[in-house]
Amino acid sequence: MALRSAPLWLLLLGVVALQQMCLGSSSHSLKIASFAIVKPSQELSQLVILGYMDDQIVAHYDSDSRKIQPRVSWMEKMRNDIPHYWQAVTDIARSKDNYFRDYLENLWTHYNQSKGFHILQEIASCDLQGNGSKEGFLQTAYDWELRNTYRMHPYDIELCIELLEKCLSYGKEMLLRTEPPVVTVTRRMEAEDGMETYICRVHGFYPKEIDAAWKRDGEVWLQDTLHGSVAPNTDGTYHYWLSIQIDPKERGHYRCHVEHDGLQEPLDVAMKAMYDIATPLV
Description:
With 282 residues, the protein is an alpha+beta fold. The protein has helices at 73-81, 83-111, 154-170, 172-175, and strands spanning 28-38, 44-53, 56-62, 67-70, 118-128, 134-142, 145-151, 182-192, 195-205, 211-216, 219-220, 225-227, 231-232, 238-246, 254-259, 267-270, 276-277.
């Protein structure tokens, strides 16, 4: 890889995954989030760059320290194994100061702005799907308003995926592991026209791809159902929830069905008569 000619987003290490529901094979995502805070006619006040790998922060850069700091042990190993590479990445991160300042000056001219602080955001990401397909996107926003979304050039996608695979190689013990989900079904403390709401909580699983659905007599049931998004936990695993509103007399017909790579076989968790709960859906 031509380090000094490649753009920053190809070289900084990081990610935050977009939710992908592809059962049976894992997808992985590398994302770089850059934030520049500046006042017109002044030098760049602050630049922060965060790197995420599969929703977990792995690297951090700021214009005060002017260094890229690993946030996980396997990133420290990568830095120690290839110090020349790490230095090249750091040099490119530092060059972002000039890039953002020039970009912001163009925006101030466009919006006819001369005072106040403003924020420019840039998020670059590439994704390697479980079926081998590859995608890459670049988004920019100004003062939190989305301005542009671009699809990466195929060559840039390949370079980004190359870096993603390097991260997978160093972080394989964490990134390629499997953790089975814990599934619980509870009844929420509410009633409407004699109906009951049941919540299926799926917690502590990794990787993030999961297939969870309510089934009635073995068939997927979508009527009167809601669900959240797959979201990360602080320990690097994920959680998810889905709810359904039913006639309590029909309780025995329903199951929360869950399939995941960490399970030897699918789970079907039944509804039971139980005390009401009032925990929030998150």
